[in-house]
Amino acid sequence: MRSLLPYCAVLPLAVPLNLEASLFCGQAFRWQVITEDGEKKFRGVVEGELVELARTDESIHGSLRIESTAPLILNQPLEKFFTRYLGLDDPIEAFFAPEFQHNYPDLFAASEHYFGLRVLHQAPFETLISFMCAQGMGIALIRRQADLLATNLGSTTTEQNFIPITAYEFPTAAQLAEAPLAALQVCTNNNSIRARNIKAVASLVARGDLKLETLASPHASLDEARNALMACSGIGEKIADCVCLFGLGHSDAFPIDTHVRQYLDAWFGLRTATQSLTRTGYDRLADEARKILGAKYAGHAGQILFHYWRLNVRGLTAV
Fold first, then answer.
1. Number of compact structural domains in the chain
2. What does DSSP say about strands 39-46 and 32-36: parallel, antiparallel, or unpaired?
3. Does one domain contain both 225 and 78?
4. What tens digit of pLDDT does each residue of 54-98 get?
5. Cα separation of 27 and 160, whole Å?
């Protein structure tokens, strides 16, 4: 079937890529699955462009077909942009420290089957707001909130008349800062506190008081980024770590939720005595995990173990 999008590129794959798992494992919220002529494709809006991704071959050395409304994204060819967006240039061999591989050989060998789960490198502001919507919510509700924010408060991204698809960009910081609270509340599951927090954070970003690009700089430490984020209302330890890992490029960020606490206990004996972690307890647990997994890519290793724990140990299918 002829593509509806005018620009196409094919990216050969030299590393494992489980595209569906990577896009739908709970780190991104606005991708959709579509099927055309029996082919499964994934449609999303990335940096203001409508994009469709499809594996042309599911083998480890297959390829990825990229279709887009533009030949460049952020002034980069499609192949280069999506190599980075999908984390295909992140070094798989460094995800788990040599000490981990030596001390936990069976767990490492089992985890290798999930190396196709990539940590995405997403737009910082969209990642920030999406995870502010995520607090206490399941994936379906997070996706609904993110879609409503884009549809109700964002801009239309497909202006070409020959593309019969209506898609919306995620709102800018200025658009959310200027949005009426009532409109934001509609998009946040009628949660007025969440709406106020999102508006406040968007205002900080729009004014330049919270510089996400600076926090994403290689010169910014994880602690600097986390502290800047957690100074904002509505952002706790886990949300800050998710934003740091999936939107700011801090590969040492280690988000901790119930599943992560369970596998840290079951596999490594890192027990937490209380039902809810204090900030000090959360940070101590994350530091212990980094010591075991290796600090530099603890976030990547943690996501692979999280996926393995949920699917193979807990037998779960939905995030």
1. 3
2. antiparallel
3. no
4. 998 777 678 999 999 999 999 999 999 999 999 999 999 999 999
5. 30
